[in-house]
From TrEMBL:
SUPFAM superfamilies: CO dehydrogenase molybdoprotein N-domain-like, Molybdenum cofactor-binding domain. GO terms for molecular function: iron ion binding; oxidoreductase activity. It holds the Pfam family Ald_Xan_dh_C. Residues 1-23 are annotated as: Disordered. PANTHER family: DEHYDROGENASE, XANTHINE DEHYDROGENASE. Residues 34-145 form the Aldehyde oxidase/xanthine dehydrogenase a/b hammerhead domain. This is Xanthine dehydrogenase family protein molybdopterin-binding subunit. Residues 1-22 have a biased composition (Polar residues).
Amino acid sequence: MTLELSLNQQPAHARQGSSIGQPLTRRDGFLKVTGAARYAADNHPPGMLYAVLAVSSIARGRVAALDVEAAKAHKGVVEVMTPKNRPALAADPDAKDHPFMFRLDLLQNDQVRYPNQSIAVVIAETLEAATEGAALLSPRYEVMPARVGLDGAESFVPRAVGVGGPAVQHKGDVEVGLKSAKTRIEATYETPAQYHNAMEPHAIVVAWEGDTLSIDTPSQGLAMAQGRIAGLFGIAPENIHIRSPFLGGGFGSKGMISGPQVLGILAARLVGRPVKLVLQREQMYGPVGHRAPTRQTLRMGMDGEGRLTALDHHAKTASSTFDDFFEPAADASHTLYASPAIATSHDAVRLDTGTPLFMRAPGEATGSIALESAIDEAAYACGMDPLEFRLRNYAEVEPMTGKPFSSKALRECYRQAAETFGWASRPLQPRLMRDADGFLTGWGMGTATFPAIMFQAEARAVLRADGSGVMETGAQDMGQGAWTAFAQIAADGLGLDIDQVDFRAGSSDLPNAGIAGGSGHTATAGMAIHNAGAAVIARLADLATGDEGSPLYGAGNEGVLARGGRLYRRDDESRGESYAEILTRAGLTEIEGHGKGAPDPASQEAYAKHAHGAVFAEVKVDPDFGQIRVTRLVGAFAAGRVINPRLVRSQYYGGMIWGVSFALHEEAITDRRSGRIQNANLAEYHVPVNADVPSVEALLVHEDDPHVNALGIKGVGEIGITGTAGAVANAVWHATGVRPRRFPVRIEDLLG
Ligand code: MOS
């Protein structure tokens, strides 16, 4: 176990009482700011070679020729891996055993099915030699016309969208609802393709030792990655050791092992030496997933009181030609607004792109931008303030299922955010506010929502005779603060101070912590940790309460409290003894306990589980040039128990800033003739820089939701993006009187 997989050497804060709820700074922050945190590509095993991908410059066709000889003749180049000499795999990379196994491009043939697809790997003594070798391959292609854009191919209704959800769903009859409405709106919105640009590109350092694999690579799901690699190479999962202590961002792109990561493993096998492979920024625009473009049409009907009579949400999206992932954008209309009739539907085209996949709030982010824009349009059609309209229409029970959920907390989010923002002084009509410099000023709002999901996780806890503890789970910290939040839960679970617990994570050799995705990591692995701690304490209490020599003798397990490294009698806290005393007297050096985290099926059946929030935005628009700036964001979020308010706020900030990015910045532009992405770099693919980020405030709304899990934890990673983009768009309307219908909103959209 390498040092950085265990962080108790950097004690956080001395403190008293519960760790949960404390605003601890990131326990790995010291390692990160001093450069001591080792990311995957920072590893250099002895004898390591550098692998560089050669990627296709066409979108569709086949590789007719590669000048392998020229590359191999280059000084320092050791080998060139192509479909001709790529080591055999135990499974076809195009096989799909279940819907969440995604097809990979592993040089299985000479076909090109999207731009930036891997077509060869050059392995060399230096990064420079490998890069130059890749350039010398000079591929020749047989090019076929690329299918580009949402009208670029024949559309069809996918069998499933998102994580296996039906593509078409309804309750009630929207046509009847629309007919009976007093007021109706219909509007179409377009959202662009967005590509993953985590600061740390996908990278892998891999060494084979016989049939054992040693891997450093960023992963949001270590056990899943292990399983996928095991299947492809026909080796036992336990022979694959993956270390992933730190990720420089993931956002969904590192949820499943990507093709290039597996190519690194193949390259190491081919040359019989350790290999490092790091994606260049441009190579991120294809093989690691992206957010699919959408075109969404919403129809709404309202009665005389501004209540929805019908809500119809249709989304058209795109997938690749060879795999299935369909952005479930319309499903955003399932969870927020009450209407007697709701219909959602999807259709899709197949394009010559890499397969779109999960990107922060997949479905909710794209869907909510259209839904929140349309809700705003509906409010105006009824002559109502957009907040008043939402307060009238937000659902008391989950709209599609009728299950109870925590919408009281949503009401509180609206109230707190509106008050902090100062919404009450907003004129209803657009173009009425100007600042001292003459900029058109607009205020808009959006509702945020994200399901409270749990997966499966395990953890192992140990109490040692010296009274210290160990907690192990293969959790993944992609910057969100898992090292810290989980250590807090571990400390409370073991009844110890945080610096008495050696919390270990980030390795596939540890118990399976599930996936850091779906905003479910803290709830899932957190519950496993909590339960592992409880299992150890229960064993310890058994020892003490059954021992005549203990002041706890006869108290019974339920009659005992664990805190500060001691067990106490619940009815008399003066009677207790330390963990060390109990273990020593029992002659034990340590005791161990295991815990699981998983959703409770009965509670799943009875309750709908969502986090909620409300975001308010201010924009300023240059009246002559149409330039838009977001100047202020206030969000209020209710997401169950807050493990660490500093980290949670930080997650909301990140989500909200991505919302600004969605509204105003991000867009992958595809050349219609070649199918290539024209701005596959961080200079031309716009993301907000510091100067684009306004004042951002995130309010944490208290919420006890006893139905999600024993700790009451929901997720916070994705919800921030869901309300914000719509709020910004609605603020643009309020500033200018122009309704944004395509995203990102462009200057030319505002010029008349
Ligand atoms: Mo996320 S898109 O669940 O990593």
